[in-house]
Amino acid sequence: MSLTLEGDFGPISDVVKEKLGFCFESTNRLIKLVNEFLDISKLQLGRDILDIKETSIVEMLKDIIVEVQPEADKKGIYLTLILPPEPTSLVMADAGKLREALYNLIDNAVKYTEKGGVKVELQFVTKGRNNCAMVIVTDTGIGMTKEEADDVFGRQFERGKEAKKVYALGRGIGLFITASIIRAHKGKIWAESLGAGQGSAFYVELIAKK
Ligand SMILES: Nc1ncnc2c1ncn2[C@@H]1O[C@H](COP(=O)(O)OP(=O)(O)O)[C@@H](O)[C@H]1O
Ligand SMILES: [Mg+2]
């Protein structure tokens, strides 16, 4: 399709170009959706598909913030990264997958906030015998009810009416994938509502390198 669009098979009219462009876009959306479902089913099989290496979560968060910042600026909301005083520790993670998970949380926080802003905080805490890295994404956006917060990582795409929306737009899979990624890393993820209209907080806990 892209070759035809680029005119490799001869000239095409503007109308055909436009219509073919729509087809191309929706095919790409479909491919993306299929890949997301494939990723989910692979992740459900566990940690094995992850390419685990020492990963700097500090650099990863800085990098994501740079990417999401323009969207926050466009909306006139703040996007702040708070790092621990000695941000030296590394986590054991599949950098690509972990980035996808954290990106979705920060992207969501910006997406669902119109006033105020988003705070991304990294902390290192000790839990029993493990050192853990905690990423806390807090926003002042539309928030969630307690029920929504408890259920927000569920398979939204399997819920009746919601399912139709998802299959049409590919929406609502993000948090399910995010949670699958974190759990495949043997990490924890949970959400808290801060009250109606008061925003939300998302927590990710990962095992840090000793
Ligand atoms: N920071 C947030 N504040 C309020 N609602 C949220 C937030 N993050 C996620 N949600 C809710 O959870 C749903 C699922 O999120 P996600 O799977 O990432 O899908 P999407 O980004 O396509 O909306 C969202 O559609 C939204 O209703
Ligand atoms: Mg999302």
Order of helices and strands: HHEHEEHEEHHHEE
Q: What is the helix content?
A: 40-55%
Strand order of the largest sheet: 2-4-5-7-6
Number of strands: 7
Uncertain runs are: 157-170
**What is the gyration radius calculated from CA atoms?**
20 Å
Structure description:
The protein has helices spanning 2-5, 14-44, 57-75, 95-111, 146-151, 160-169, 174-184, and strands at residues 53-55, 78-82, 91-93, 117-127, 130-139, 188-193, 200-207. The chain has 210 residues and is of the alpha+beta class. The protein folds into 2 domains: 1-45; 51-207, Heat Shock Protein 90 (2-Layer Sandwich). The longest helix has 31 residues, at 14-44. The chain is globular, with a radius of gyration of 20 Å. Residues 157-170 have low confidence and may be disordered. Magnesium ion is lined by residues 104, 107-108, 174. Pfam families: HATPase_c. Its EC number is 2.7.13.3.
